[in-house]
Amino acid sequence: MLKPFPPLTINELMQRVEQIAGLTLGEIAADFNFKTPEHLLREKGWQGQLLEYVLGATAGSKPVPDFEHLGIELKTIPIGFNGKPLETTYVSVVPLTNLTGMTWQSSTVKKKLTHVLWLPILAEKTIQPIDRTIGSGFLWQPSEIQEHQLQRDWEEQMELIALGRIDEISGHLGEVMQIRPKAANSKALTDVIGPNGTMTQTLPRGYYLKIPFTTQILAEQFGL
């Protein structure tokens, strides 16, 4: 099957989402002749790459929504048999330098979370990756309260980074969004503002939505 073109409208995107609901990742990969690695547990990004390919996402690794021309970000969310999220949801990389003038309104997090296509995937640990089933995808935009929560978490944690206090940031901070190290290994260091204002080295960080927040989003959609 030919590589799908980017969807021209939100309606076209949602038609594609409906077409893959109920299928397993393995079935979708076979339908689109998408290469499946032998050791999926080592290829954590495969699932996202497959779904971006099938749905026609265009952003790649750019700091913009996955369906850039539609302004929609794709977020897969692994759920258990109880319909609850199994893990936090990665949003984007945390900027650690050149923070002057940066605001919530101009942030990558705001761009990514303004309009999200959530794709639940039944991914209980007993299910092999290729046998994981796609659920009913849906579009979401943060409510006024949710936007306020996200902005407050972003601003509080970015202020600590700007003040050279990144070591004070842990997964416990943030009401709905946390900052955590994001690196394949402990040697992948990057620049950061140190305690005395000079540059030092640290692990790259990522923004993650906390499980209670995504649980709330699913509950609002499906009435759980």
Automatic annotation (TrEMBL):
<dbReference type="InterPro" id="IPR004230">
    <property type="entry name" value="DNA_mismatch_repair_MutH"/>
</dbReference>
<keyword id="KW-0540">Nuclease</keyword>
<dbReference type="GO" id="GO:0016787">
    <property type="term" value="F:hydrolase activity"/>
</dbReference>
<dbReference type="GO" id="GO:0003677">
    <property type="term" value="F:DNA binding"/>
</dbReference>
<dbReference type="InterPro" id="IPR011335">
    <property type="entry name" value="Restrct_endonuc-II-like"/>
</dbReference>
<comment type="function">
    <text>Sequence-specific endonuclease that cleaves unmethylated GATC sequences. It is involved in DNA mismatch repair.</text>
</comment>
<keyword id="KW-0378">Hydrolase</keyword>
<comment type="similarity">
    <text>Belongs to the MutH family.</text>
</comment>
<dbReference type="InterPro" id="IPR037057">
    <property type="entry name" value="DNA_rep_MutH/T2_RE_sf"/>
</dbReference>
<keyword id="KW-0963">Cytoplasm</keyword>
<dbReference type="GO" id="GO:0006304">
    <property type="term" value="P:DNA modification"/>
</dbReference>
<dbReference type="GO" id="GO:0005737">
    <property type="term" value="C:cytoplasm"/>
</dbReference>
<dbReference type="GO" id="GO:0004519">
    <property type="term" value="F:endonuclease activity"/>
</dbReference>
<feature type="domain" description="DNA mismatch repair MutH/Type II restriction enzyme Sau3AI">
    <location>
        <begin position="55"/>
        <end position="153"/>
    </location>
</feature>
<dbReference type="GO" id="GO:0006298">
    <property type="term" value="P:mismatch repair"/>
</dbReference>
<protein>
    <recommendedName>
        <fullName>DNA mismatch repair protein MutH</fullName>
    </recommendedName>
</protein>
<keyword id="KW-0255">Endonuclease</keyword>
<keyword id="KW-0234">DNA repair</keyword>
<keyword id="KW-0227">DNA damage</keyword>
<dbReference type="InterPro" id="IPR011337">
    <property type="entry name" value="DNA_rep_MutH/RE_typeII_Sau3AI"/>
</dbReference>
<dbReference type="Pfam" id="PF02976">
    <property type="entry name" value="MutH"/>
</dbReference>
